[in-house]
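Please, structure for the following, as tokens.
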Amino acid sequence: NAGARFVIDRLARYVPGDIQLGQIKGTLAGDLRLEGFNFRSSDWEVSANHVRLRWKPLGMLGGWIQIAQLYLEDVKVNDLHPEVTTPSDFTWPNVPGMLSWLKARIRSFHIAGITYNKAGNKAMSIEKVTAQAIWYLGMMNVKEILITAPEGSFYGILGANFANHKISLQGRLLPHQALYGLDEHRIILKLAEEKKQRDINGTIRIISMAGNSERVKLTTSVSILKGAITLNEIELREMGRSGALRGSVGIDMFPVEHPFKINLVFDGLGLSRELESTKTVSGMLEVKGDVKGYKGLFNVQTRGKPWAQIDAAADFEGNYDGIHASNLQGKFMNGTV
């Protein structure tokens, strides 16, 4: 154990932060257990009550780091970043030179309990994370992902190529409590970086299920340039209901104020999914603002029997304290507002 501690202490010197180890059991040659681990830097503090690493040193002869099991128990992550942070930048990360030629495989990765704290307050907890992972010369493949939390579970696979700057995610999100009868959400995400302009583009597709039936479909293109995220060509449809919601949403995370813009158009939306009806709703919504406030306009028109048609439009503005509408105009049963 003294030899294992000596080697770990020497390796820890290359880590940008302070590492404290508890009792060490086992050997570096195959089965290593740490009873207590703590890492602290200026921005993060990470601790675990128990860490177990089982690996096969002979794999190094073939150029591979082969880990049979990496198990962590009761992990606590404390975010020490100040409340006033630097602007977000979503530029694709560059892989350090050492990792670009590394080959590694983890057959069993397991975290039993994760707590994330921000500014001393509990922000999120995860009950379990399990997966298998392969890192090969700058390419990563994570399969059999299982994440369980109080809100639900996620199953999926993740692939990323840090040389060609591509990432894909495919998974199933199962909430513990169904919302509007939707008990499963199937997610497909594909992103790739345009090297000339350094922006990231791709698509997101979400299919929400009710039992074994597809109920709601959402598709959108994604564009990310530094801190600006834009969803274009949004289309939201519900099976059995006429019409669709289309539009775009954009938010810039780079300025501290996070300015955003929303443009939505709904065309011929049926008022009922279960019952056939000739009455539909069409209209638009435009909103611009930031964290301090917002303003916009909307108009809505229903179509059906002449006596039941409604037209309405208004401007509005608001903030965290409330919302105020003005310039309200409307028509109903041959009357006006």
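The radius of gyration is 26 Å. The chain has a mean pLDDT of 86.
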